[in-house]
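FORM 12-B: Structure-to-Sequence Request
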C-alpha cells in the first residue's frame, strides 16, 4: 500500500469527520501482508480500529435480500447450457443461446430488462442491472436484489448500500457514473441475480445458473482490475466453491484471469459488526491488488477489447 493511498484515505477520514487514526497504518500493513500471502490458505487477521470507518448507523433495519446467509446453491453449469429455456416453467429465454456473450452494454441492459428466463420475472418490480461507470477499474459483485433494490432498480441501496458507499469512500472510490474521476477511483456494482427472489428468500441454483451469463458478460465488457465479491452467493457463483467466506477471504483468487477478493456482504456486517475489521482488511487487500494491477499492463489485452476501451465513454 503506497504512501499516496494512505494520504488519500486519511483525507477521506477527515472528510468523514473521523480522527486521523493511527491503526489505519496497521490496516494497510495487514493488507500488504495479506497481498504477499496471496493464494496462501492462512487468512489475514482483522485490522484493528476499522469500526471507526465502517461504523453502521444505529437502529439499522433488517437487511434486504438473502445477503450472506442460507444454504449454498449448487455450482452452476457452463454458460451455454444455462441459456436454455426453462423446462416446465412458463418462462422463455430472452435471446438465442450464446447471444448474450456478444452483446454490448446497451443490448445487454435491454436483454436483462426483457428477460423471462426464470420464474423471478413473475414477481419482480423491475430488473436490477448494475450501477457505476463502465470504465471502472473496480467491480463489486453482490448477491440478489432486496426490496429496495427491486423498487429503485439499483444494487446496494438502503442501509447496507450506505455502508458499502462509506467503505468505498474511505478509499477514495465512488459508484458515481458521472464526474471526472479516473477509472482507478470508479466502481461498477452488479448483482449475481438481476431479479429479487420473493420475500428475499435465498436464490435457487437454477435461478443463479440462468442469470449468470448476464454477469459474465458485464465482467467481459468491464474487464476490471479487481473484483470484490461480497456475500456467500456472489462468492460461490464466481469461485464455484462451497467453502465459507471465512475460509476464502484474506487471499487473492482469480476469476477469468482477473484478481478477485472475497469479503462479507455489508448486510451481514450490519448484523455482525464484529466482522467489520475483517471486511476493512479485505478492502485494503483489494486496494493493494488494484494498485499493483494499475502499474501492470491492463489484463484486457485483446485487440478488440483494447479498441473497446479506447472508445469514447458510453452512457453508463
Ligand atoms: S433473475 Fe436473471 S434469469 Fe431470472 S428473469 Fe431475472 S434477469 Fe432473467
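FORM 12-B RESPONSE
SEQUENCE OUT:
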Amino acid at each position: 500500500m503506497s504512501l499516496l493511498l494512505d494520504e488519500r484515505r486519511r483525507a477521506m477520514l477527515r472528510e468523514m469527520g473521523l480522527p486521523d487514526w493511527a491503526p489505519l497504518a496497521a490496516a494497510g500493513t495487514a493488507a500488504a501482508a495479506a497481498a504477499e500471502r496471496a493464494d496462501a490458505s492462512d487468512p489475514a487477521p482483522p485490522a484493528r480500529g476499522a469500526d471507526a470507518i465502517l461504523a453502521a448507523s444505529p437502529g439499522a433495519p433488517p437487511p434486504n435480500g438473502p445477503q450472506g446467509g442460507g444454504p449454498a446453491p449448487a455450482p452452476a453449469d457452463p454458460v451455454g447450457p444455462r441459456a436454455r429455456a426453462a423446462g416446465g416453467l412458463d418462462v422463455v429465454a430472452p435471446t438465442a443461446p450464446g447471444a448474450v456473450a456478444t452483446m454490448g452494454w446497451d443490448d445487454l441492459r435491454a436483454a436483462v430488462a426483457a428477460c423471462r428466463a426464470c420464474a423471478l420475472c413473475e414477481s419482480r418490480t423491475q430488473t436490477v442491472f448494475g450501477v457505476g461507470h463502465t470504465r471502472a477499474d473496480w467491480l463489486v459483485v453482490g448477491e440478489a436484489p432486496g426490496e429496495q433494490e427491486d423498487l429503485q432498480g439499483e444494487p446496494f441501496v438502503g442501509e447496507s448500500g450506505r455502508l458499502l458507499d462509506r467503505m468505498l469512500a474511505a478509499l477514495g472510490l465512488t459508484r458515481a457514473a458521472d464526474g471526472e474521476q479516473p477509472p482507478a477511483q470508479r466502481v461498477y456494482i452488479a448483482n449475481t441475480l438481476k431479479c429479487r427472489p420473493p420475500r428475499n428468500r435465498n436464490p435457487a441454483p437454477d435461478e443463479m445458473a440462468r442469470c449468470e451469463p448476464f454477469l459474465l458478460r458485464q465482467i467481459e465488457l468491464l474487464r476490471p482490475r479487481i473484483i470484490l465479491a461480497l456475500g456467500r452467493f456472489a462468492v460461490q457463483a464466481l469461485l464455484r466453491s462451497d467453502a465459507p467466506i471465512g475460509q476464502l477471504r484474506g487471499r487473492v483468487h482469480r476469476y477469468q484471469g482477473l484478481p478477485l477478493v472475497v469479503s462479507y456482504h455489508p448486510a451481514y456486517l450490519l448484523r455482525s459488526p464484529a466482522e467489520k475489521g475483517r471486511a476493512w482488511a479485505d478492502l485494503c487487500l483489494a486496494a493493494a491488488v488494484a494498485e499493483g494491477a494499475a502499474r501492470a499492463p491492463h489484463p484486457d489485452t485483446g485487440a478488440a477489447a483494447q479498441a473497446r476501451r479506447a472508445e469514447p465513454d458510453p452512457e453508463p
